[in-house]
Write a structure and sequence with these properties.
single chain; 445 residues; alpha/beta; D-Maltodextrin-Binding Protein, domain 2; 2 domains; ten-stranded mixed sheet; two-stranded antiparallel sheet; 17 helices
C-alpha cells in the first residue's frame, strides 16, 4: 500500500516537473525575436591587446556577445557600415522603413542634427551616477539638448594640420620642424614665410597647403581657416558672422594664397581625398589629420601643427564620437538597444578600443593611458580648440551650401565681400530652417 502511494505521489511530482519544464520551454519559445540595426561610417579604433582597428568588427563582436547572454528578447545585432557620402541614404533615407537605424555610432557633428528630427531617444534613464561621474561635464554638455542627454560619448578626436618634414627640409625650413609628439603653432608672419618659401622651392606639381571645394567633405577645416584673421565665425546667437572685417580678410587671404601658388592648381574642383592623395605622394607639404589617422603615417617624416590664428597660439577642432538610439515606433526595440549600450559601456575590453583617441571614460583613459597616441599633447592643446557647430541644428543643410560659395570664391566668380555675404545668408537660412523644423523626442511622436 505504501509503495502504491509512493508511486502515485512520484507520478504526480513527475507530471508537475514536466509541466514546469514544458512551461519554461514554451516561455522560451515565445520570447520575441528582435533585430537591432547598428549603423556606422568607416571608423577606426585601436586596442593594443587585440590589434583590431575597424569599429565594424568591434560592433559585430559586441553584438554576438550581447545576444548570447541577453535574456529579455531573442536578439540579433546586425551591423551596417556606410560610406561617408552615403549618410543621408542610410540614415534619414531609411526613416519609417525596415532598414531604419536603431543605433548609430558616429561623430557628433552629424549626430547632433538627428536629435532635432524627434527620433533620437533621451538616454538619461540608462546613465547611472557612476557613468555620469566617469565622463567630463564638457562632453555631457555637448551631448545634451534642453538638459536631456541624447548621445553617449565614446572617444574624442582632435583635428590639427600636419606637414611633411622632408619637404620642409628640402625647402630650407628645417628650423620650423618641431620635436616629435609636440603640436606646434606658428605666428601669422611665420605662416607667410613658410608658405611663400614652399611655393618658391617645391618641385612642379607639388604644393604648399591643402585646399578643396568640390563637395562638403572636409569643409570644417576651411571653416577653421576662416578664423585666421580674428573672426569668431559665429555671433552671440550662434549664427554665421563672416560678413565682418575679420571674416572678409580671411576670405581675401584664401584668394591671395591661391594666386601665390600656396594651394593645388584647380583646387576648387578637388575634394579632401584628393589632397590626401597628394600628401601621401609627397606632392603636398601641409595637410590635416587627427589622433585616429596620424598614427598610421610615418612619424619620422610627419610633424603636427595647429591651424593659423592671429595670436600665434593656433586653432584646432575637436569632436566626440559616440552612440545614439533611434525610436522607430517599437518600445521593445528601444529597450533592447539601451540594454545593448549598457552592455557595451560596461565591458572593459570594448571600452578599451576608445584608445584610438582620448576615451570619454576617465577610467578607460587611465587604464589604457600608455597606449593613447600623443595623449599629453592633445590634452594640452584643448585650450586652443574652437567650436565649429555652435550646437546648431541642420548642420547637414549648412554643409550643403557652405562649400558652394568657397568653390565660387576659388574659381574667381565672386569676391571675398560677396562670399561673406552669401555664406552668412545661406548658412544662417539653413540654421533657421533647422530651428523651425526642430522637434525633440516624445513618446507620442
Amino acid at each position: 500500500m505504501k509503495n502504491w502511494r509512493r508511486i502515485v505521489v512520484g507520478g504526480i511530482l513527475l507530471v508537475m516537473l514536466m509541466g514546469i519544464l514544458t512551461g519554461c520551454k514554451t516561455q522560451e519559445a515565445e520570447k520575441r525575436q528582435i533585430t537591432l540595426k547598428v549603423k556606422l561610417p568607416p571608423l577606426t579604433v585601436a586596442n593594443a591587446d587585440t590589434g583590431i582597428t575597424d569599429s565594424y568588427e568591434v560592433l559585430n563582436m559586441a553584438g554576438e556577445a550581447f545576444a548570447a547572454q541577453y535574456k529579455d528578447y531573442d536578439v540579433t545585432v546586425e551591423v551596417v557600415k556606410f560610406g561617408y557620402t552615403e549618410e543621408d541614404e542610410y540614415i534619414t533615407g531609411c526613416f519609417d522603413t525596415d532598414d531604419a537605424a536603431d543605433i548609430l555610432l558616429e561623430g557628433y557633428f552629424n549626430m547632433a542634427g538627428y536629435i532635432h528630427t524627434g527620433r533620437v531617444v533621451p538616454l538619461d534613464d540608462m546613465i547611472t551616477e557612476e557613468m555620469r561621474a566617469d565622463v567630463d561635464d564638457a562632453l555631457w554638455k555637448m551631448s545634451q539638448v534642453d538638459g536631456k542627454t541624447y548621445m553617449l560619448p565614446y572617444y574624442s578626436l582632435q583635428n590639427t594640420l600636419i606637414y611633411n618634414k622632408d619637404l620642409f627640409r628640402q625647402c630650407g625650413l628645417a628650423e620650423y620642424i618641431g620635436v616629435d609628439g609636440v603640436i606646434q603653432s606658428w605666428t601669422p608672419e611665420e605662416w607667410e614665410h613658410i608658405l611663400s618659401t614652399l611655393a618658391a622651392n617645391l618641385p612642379d606639381m607639388t604644393y604648399p597647403m591643402l585646399m578643396y571645394a568640390k563637395n562638403d567633405q572636409g569643409d570644417t577645416h576651411i571653416m577653421t581657416l576662416l578664423r585666421s584673421k580674428g573672426s569668431h565665425f559665429f555671433d552671440e546667437n550662434g549664427r554665421f558672422n563672416l560678413n565682418t572685417e575679420e571674416g572678409i580678410a580671411a576670405l581675401q587671404w584664401i584668394v591671395d594664397s591661391y594666386k601665390k601658388g600656396y594651394f593645388p592648381a584647380g583646387c576648387e574642383n578637388m575634394e579632401i581625398v584628393d589632397c590626401s592623395d597628394l600628401f601621401i605622394n609627397n606632392q603636398l607639404a601641409i595637410y590635416m589629420a587627427n589622433s585616429a589617422t596620424l598614427p598610421s603615417m610615418d612619424r619620422n617624416s610627419t610633424g603636427t601643427a595647429n591651424f593659423p590664428s592671429p595670436d600665434g597660439k593656433g586653432y584646432n577642432t575637436s569632436f566626440v564620437t559616440g552612440f545614439e538610439i533611434f525610436d522607430n515606433g517599437d518600445t521593445e526595440k528601444v529597450q533592447a538597444a539601451k540594454d545593448f549600450l549598457r552592455y557595451f559601456m560596461s565591458d572593459e575590453e570594448l571600452m578599451n578600443y576608445a584608445q584610438v583617441g582620448i576615451p570619454a571614460s576617465n577610467a578607460t583613459a587611465q587604464r589604457v593611458s600608455k597606449h593613447i597616441f600623443m595623449q599629453e599633447a592633445y590634452t594640452a592643446n584643448t585650450a586652443n580648440t574652437v567650436d565649429f557647430t555652435a550646437n546648431n541644428p541642420n548642420w547637414r543643410g549648412v554643409h550643403d551650401v557652405f562649400y558652394t560659395h568657397i568653390h565660387k570664391l576659388l574659381a574667381g566668380t565672386i569676391t571675398p565681400e560677396e562670399a561673406a555675404e552669401a555664406l552668412d545668408a545661406d548658412c544662417n537660412a539653413a540654421i533657421e530652417t533647422g530651428w523651425k523644423n526642430s522637434k525633440l523626442h516624445s513618446p507620442d511622436n
